[in-house]
Write a structure and sequence with these properties.
The complex is a heterodimer. Chain A is mainly alpha-helical. Chain A has 14 helices and four strands. Classes of the chains: A mainly alpha, B mainly alpha.
Chain lengths: 335, 411
């Protein structure tokens, strides 16, 4: 029993990441009709926002302390991060909390990146076939990756969660669950809720939803739907970005983390139903949980190697049995 | 392209064979005249030619073709281990195995089209890749990679008393220039086969599927058997390339199956020009050239290259170019990829045609029209009926487009 609960919990936080990425993908697809293979790269860029922010915070001021000397007799150099020098103890707290705080930086940065990508590249691809869209965004993903690799190197850069969240929660004797994963799960649920609230409760969201249904009619009503869709694409980038930021303490970011997630999240989107936001979320959590169940030793003993292929297997079955995906709308990409 | 005579096709094939034969001479001035690299050109050329039969003709974008290459490699290495060091059994084994795998994957994936097809093939390829690393380790030797050992049984060799330390073809060792000419001969054969397929009724059917699958259905064609054959054929080409790859470097690893490898063959094909005969080979050559020559540049060489510039400027120039060569060559690759898709969807072949003004081709507006998009999206018009004048043909196309637009608006 304990093992099952543990696997569900493990699956939930992984599922949270899948759901967030798939949500962004679906937003871009549902509004602009664009299949964005660079979405994983946006996740990666978000993660590197956290890295950059941490680096900025820990820039150090070097002062020579004349009263003390090193064992070799030269004056001792005291290095203090400038934030700490400026803000004292608050600076320390600031650095400790660099990962969650960097969301503040990541949101405008990712929004900007998303809008630039949409205006600069993707809008020329609305009318082109999906194959072209896949290929051009695939190229974009390579370019983004390589730029990050150039500046940050190929090795993963570990980020730490704030001190108080670094431990684990001892639920029962057998169930130990790291605090940060709980935070991640809560965070992903909050972001998902925020996106849905934005789309369901605001006028802007209403217009966007109307545009997803029938773009032409909304345009005929005199609404500049294209600009709103651009903003939605930016929003998708933000969702991917913050998902990346919060994921950094779980897996140290490196330049190709996005690609690893991309393939999976595409599978998630397809399983959930192309263009269906609730479908993406549901499929994200479902596949996350399925994957952690498949990696249980008992299951692996039964069907060796199942943990490696379960997600793809599920995708194949779903695509063949339910061409629309779990919650796909009728008539959307259904052939 | 279509209204070329049989003679022109034969001339093209012979010209191609001559270029391959003179490869060492032609490629020396640009620093690519060594057998290892030319061999790679040839092997990946075969891979791309095969991929082009699927993507170029039918417009179905497979994102999992590297799986067939990888399976071909494994099959070839096992043939080297168990049967014989000769290339022939290895080729037969890997082509058959890759064909079988393609049959299975294609049978399932081809039930869907468009992006779903891409994702299904991607899912299958990732499954193969993941399994090669985990469950199938006894067969694939996991991360270490499968290699040929001296004391492997090699039953056929033992029966004939044939001993060869390296993979060979009827006694010719596949190394150095011999290796290149063996691969080159296979490349020419593959090219000839692809010409034959392009010109055959089968090839025309595939093109028809690309331009409008529904209409094909109305005229009574069941498109799936044709698509499946195309898929299997291109999988077999990939298996063939995989066996040659294993023969030149008898160490098969799962990384050959990774989806970035599948992306690479897509890039090679579209860079050259999907749906054209020469395009895939040209694209392959260009990319493998980039990979080998560009990635070898380092800062000293760049500094020497730009020695004529004044000091301050030189440093800046070296720094910026340094971004794109050496370790950063993939950045160049990505940019190239985007540039081709954006500006030249017809690939290099279209660029050449446009430059020379050889043919009156309407601008290619998309790479491979996915079947269900047709009629709404832009159509790829590949050829004109030969009897009409260019102007007349243009008018006809315009009319057709108008009619199509009307039809699209009507409901």
């Amino acid at each position: 029993m304990d093992a099952i609960i543990l696997q569900i919990l493990n699956g939930l936080d992984k599922g949270g990441a899948y759901a967030l990425i798939a949500l962004g993908l679906t937003l871009a697809f549902g509004t602009l009709g664009v299949v964005n293979f660079a979405h994983g790269a946006l996740f990666m860029l978000g993660a590197f926002c956290a890295v950059v922010f941490n680096k900025l915070l820990t820039l150090e001021i070097v002062r020579v302390d004349p009263t003390k000397t090193t064992p070799w007799g030269s004056p001792l150099e005291v290095k203090t991060p400038y934030v700490q020098a400026m803000l004292g103890d608050w600076g320390k707290v600031f650095i400790d909390y660099s990962v969650p705080v960097s969301i503040v930086m990541a949101i405008p940065v990712m929004l900007l990146i998303g809008i630039v990508i949409e205006r600069g590249l993707i809008r020329f691809f609305y009318k082109r076939p999906h194959a072209d869209q896949i290929l051009v965004t695939f190229g974009l993903a390579i370019v983004l990756q390589e730029i990050v690799k150039h500046f940050f190197g190929a090795n993963p850069i570990a980020q730490s969660a704030p001190q108080i969240f670094s431990g684990s929660l001892q639920m029962t004797e057998a169930i130990v669950y790291p605090y940060w994963r709980i935070i991640y799960l809560a965070f992903s649920l909050a972001v998902i809720a925020a996106v849905f609230a934005f789309l369901q409760l605001t006028t802007f969201g209403m217009v966007v939803r109307a545009g997803m249904q029938d773009r032409e009619t909304v345009g005929l009503l005199g609404i500049n739907i294209e600009r709103r869709f651009t903003i939605v694409f930016g929003l998708a980038a933000v969702v991917a970005g913050v998902a990346g930021v919060m994921y950094t303490p779980i897996v140290p970011p490196d330049y190709h983390m996005g690609m690893d997630f991309l393939v999976l999240s595409f599978v998630v989107v397809v399983v959930g139903g192309m263009g269906s936001l609730p479908g993406a979320v549901l499929a994200g959590f479902l596949l996350g949980i399925l994957q952690s169940f498949a990696s249980m030793n008992e299951v692996k003993a039964l069907v060796p190697g199942i943990d490696q292929i379960i997600i793809y297997l599920v995708a194949v079955v779903i695509l063949l049995v339910r061409p629309r995906g779990l919650l796909g709308r009728k008539g959307v990409m259904e052939s | 392209m279509k209204h070329t005579s049989k003679l022109a096709d034969i001339a093209l094939l012979i010209g191609f064979a001559i270029v391959v034969a003179l490869g060492p001479v032609i490629f020396t001035p640009i620093g690519a005249g060594y057998p290892d690299l030319l061999q790679k050109f040839a092997i990946y050329g075969i891979f791309a030619i095969g991929f082009n039969i699927l993507f170029g003709l039918t417009g179905y974008l497979s994102f999992g073709h590297a799986a067939f290459l990888g399976v071909g490699s494994y099959a070839a290495v096992w043939s080297f281990k168990l049967l014989s060091m000769d290339l022939l059994p290895a080729v037969i084994a890997s082509v058959l195995l890759a064909g079988l795998l393609a049959l299975a994957i294609g049978f399932i994936s081809l039930r869907r089209s468009g992006i779903y097809f891409s994702i299904l093939t991607l899912a299958f390829a990732q499954m193969c890749y993941n399994m090669a690393y985990s469950v199938l380790t006894p067969i694939t030797n996991g991360e270490t990679g499968l290699r040929v050992l001296r004391n492997d049984p090699r039953h056929l060799d033992a029966a004939f008393g044939y001993v060869s330390p390296m993979p060979s073809l009827l006694g010719l060792q596949i190394t150095g220039w011999t290796g290149f000419y063996i691969c080159g001969a296979v490349l020419v054969a593959a090219f000839g086969l692809s010409i034959a397929i392009f010109r055959s009724p089968f090839g025309m059917t595939l093109r028809a599927i690309k331009s409008n699958q529904n209409r094909m259905g109305y005229t009574g064609y069941s498109s799936r058997p044709y698509l499946l054959s195309a898929f299997v054929i291109s999988g077999m080409f990939a298996g063939l390339a995989g066996s040659l790859l294993a023969a030149t470097d008898p160490l098969a690893g799962a990384e050959r199956m990774q989806w970035t490898a599948s992306g690479e063959v897509v890039l090679m094909t579209i860079l050259g020009g999907a749906g054209t005969l020469l395009g895939p080979v040209l694209g392959t050559g260009l990319i493998k050239y980039f990979e080998n020559i560009f990635s070898a540049y380092n800062e000293q060489q760049l500094t020497a290259m730009f020695a004529f510039l004044p000091d301050g400027v030189r440093e800046a120039v070296v720094k910026t170019t340094g971004l794109f060569v050496g370790e950063g060559w993939q950045l160049t690759l990505g940019l190239l990829f985007m540039a081709v898709v954006i500006f030249l969807p017809g690939g290099i072949m279209e660029g050449i045609n446009r430059l020379l003004g050889l043919k009156h081709t309407p601008k290619v507006k998309s790479l491979g029209d996915s079947p269900q998009r047709d009629g709404l999206g832009e159509m790829v018009i590949e050829e004109m009926p030969p009897s009409h004048g260019a102007a007349e043909a243009d008018k006809k196309v315009a009319e057709q487009k108008n009619a199509e637009k009307k039809r699209a608006v009507a409901p």
